[in-house]
Model the fold of this input.
Amino acid sequence: MRYFRIYTDSRNPLPRCLNWNSLVKPGRRTGRLVFEALEKNNHLQIELDGECEFMDILCRPCFMVSKEFAGLIRMYCPEIRFKNMYLFDRKNQRTAFYLVPDLPEIECLHGDSELSRDKSEIKKGILSGEKIGNLPVFLLGNVKADYIMANLEFVESAYRREVRGMKTEEFRVL
Done:
């Protein structure tokens, strides 16, 4: 059983969010709290640097995915719910549509893992396989930042579909 953290490639510039505080109040910015705080349809004003291309996966200000990537999540987890996120760059007159998934949050970080003092960063990631079960994609619980985990089959499927802007980092599973 192999699991990977999936996240936005830092070489792709992320849009700056201008009205995020009006959508999600401070203190509700991680995990499933974000999903619960959002409405069914959300409008996020952003600023883009020049000719920035919209990627299939964005991790900031919350985890959101393109329609194609959401289809992949639905294929592996048909019960996952989504909320709509419309991004609008007023200056450049550009828009994009993303979906925010309601991923299950699993507290499966093994005791031998190494975290930063404030639990916002995992320095050495080890997962407890028995707590994961057979979930193909989930949100790692008990961490102050969003860590989206996916199994090898899901990650390979994403790369076969040429997902843009995704990077992976493997975590050990015991």
About this structure: The helical segments are 20-23, 32-37, 67-76, 129-132, 152-160.
